[in-house]
């Protein structure tokens, strides 16, 4: 056995650590490719780095290096004629039906690079500490200081809704629900889908005023669902001024637990004794997308002292809001549906 073989007993482990330590390079490369429009410029035939560089106004050599790095992750593939799309790289196109363009931008926005170095402090202290560092909560700061990033967030949420909404609509039995409030429902893509699937249903899109100002056209005056929809601006952390049969929290109760409890309590106060509360969330327990889930969990820790939930933690939030868990079941490969009701 050589000295080198003695020193490196598990070369695969060495490779794994080196690649994980450099994983920020992959995130940065994805963001750069989206920002300069590589996926949009690359059509159905392969193109050389020179052709692509001319089309998007980039440096040929540097673009080639970017494409080469991304190809190692299956984002684009190199052929004899140049670089071509893969199923993965097509997700960076805005016109792809399963597009993740804005999600990619959201989780690589400039503020994320500011926050990641604070993970050590968060682990030591038990708090992300965003409010202590920036003087206000994350979303208030986002809208004030990074309004373009706030727009990216809303578009990313719509993308994620498109990927999951049909599964959510199939999982939600709304046959006995007359009115539904989509709490912090963004632009309303999920609500619009639920209204389309349930012709008897009336719905309310409730979110911050700047968000609902850009609501899905189907829900606004003149839209095909406007006669069964209302758009209401406000903060669920202050009040939910709408009484309804059911309240939907889709990927929302992932803030700090005290805020999640407040939002649920406000819905319970607004509702009736027989109102239902639907919580759709990406659970850590048994998640087949565990790297995505645990990575997001750490990001939420840093920007809002939030979390991705386990069965125990989401159940604790529900109970602290004076509600009880009625049922919990999978929606698709990464989402769960939890239904809650008043404790008494």
UniProtKB/TrEMBL annotation:
<dbReference type="InterPro" id="IPR012967">
    <property type="entry name" value="COMT_dimerisation"/>
</dbReference>
<dbReference type="GO" id="GO:0032259">
    <property type="term" value="P:methylation"/>
</dbReference>
<feature type="domain" description="O-methyltransferase C-terminal">
    <location>
        <begin position="116"/>
        <end position="321"/>
    </location>
</feature>
<dbReference type="GO" id="GO:0008171">
    <property type="term" value="F:O-methyltransferase activity"/>
</dbReference>
<dbReference type="InterPro" id="IPR029063">
    <property type="entry name" value="SAM-dependent_MTases_sf"/>
</dbReference>
<keyword id="KW-0808">Transferase</keyword>
<keyword id="KW-0489">Methyltransferase</keyword>
<keyword id="KW-0949">S-adenosyl-L-methionine</keyword>
<dbReference type="Pfam" id="PF08100">
    <property type="entry name" value="Dimerisation"/>
</dbReference>
<dbReference type="InterPro" id="IPR036390">
    <property type="entry name" value="WH_DNA-bd_sf"/>
</dbReference>
<protein>
    <submittedName>
        <fullName>Methyltransferase</fullName>
    </submittedName>
</protein>
<dbReference type="GO" id="GO:0046983">
    <property type="term" value="F:protein dimerization activity"/>
</dbReference>
<dbReference type="Pfam" id="PF00891">
    <property type="entry name" value="Methyltransf_2"/>
</dbReference>
<dbReference type="InterPro" id="IPR001077">
    <property type="entry name" value="COMT_C"/>
</dbReference>
<dbReference type="InterPro" id="IPR036388">
    <property type="entry name" value="WH-like_DNA-bd_sf"/>
</dbReference>
<feature type="domain" description="O-methyltransferase dimerisation">
    <location>
        <begin position="23"/>
        <end position="92"/>
    </location>
</feature>
<dbReference type="InterPro" id="IPR016461">
    <property type="entry name" value="COMT-like"/>
</dbReference>
């Amino acid at each position: 056995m050589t000295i080198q073989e003695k020193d490196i007993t598990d070369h695969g482990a060495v490779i794994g650590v080196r690649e994980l330590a450099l994983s920020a390079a992959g995130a940065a490369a994805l963001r750069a490719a989206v920002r300069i429009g590589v996926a949009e410029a690359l059509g159905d035939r392969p193109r050389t780095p020179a052709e692509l560089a001319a089309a998007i106004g980039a440096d040929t050599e540097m673009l080639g290096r970017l494409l080469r790095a991304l190809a190692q992750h299956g984002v684009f593939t190199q052929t004899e004629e140049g670089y071509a799309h893969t199923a993965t790289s097509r997700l960076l196109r805005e016109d792809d039906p399963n597009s993740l363009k804005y999600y990619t931008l959201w989780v690589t926005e400039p503020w994320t690079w500011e926050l990641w170095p604070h993970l050590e402090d968060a682990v030591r202290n038990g708090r992300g500490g965003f409010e202590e560092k920036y003087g206000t909560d994350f979303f208030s700061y986002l809208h004030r200081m990074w309004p373009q990033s706030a727009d990216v967030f809303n578009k990313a949420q719509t993308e994620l809704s498109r990927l999951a909404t049909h599964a959510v609509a199939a999982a939600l039995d709304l046959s006995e629900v007359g009115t539904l409030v989509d709490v912090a429902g963004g632009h309303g893509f999920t609500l619009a889908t639920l209204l389309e699937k349930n012709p008897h249903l009336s719905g309310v899109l409730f979110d911050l005023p700047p968000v609902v100002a850009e609501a899905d056209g189907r829900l606004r005056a003149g839209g095909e669902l406007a006669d069964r929809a209302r758009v209401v601006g406000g903060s669920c952390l202050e009040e939910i001024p709408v009484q309804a049969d059911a309240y939907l929290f889709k990927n929302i109760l992932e803030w700090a637990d005290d805020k999640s409890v407040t939002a649920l309590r406000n819905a319970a106060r607004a509702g009736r004794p027989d109102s239902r509360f639907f919580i759709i969330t990406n659970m850590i327990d048994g998640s087949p997308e565990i790297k995505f889930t645990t990575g997001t969990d750490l990001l939420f820790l840093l920007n809002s002292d939030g979390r991705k939930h386990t069965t125990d933690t989401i159940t604790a939030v529900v109970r602290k809001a004076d509600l009880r868990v009625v049922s919990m079941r999978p929606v698709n490969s990464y989402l769960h549906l939890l239904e809650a009701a008043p404790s008494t």
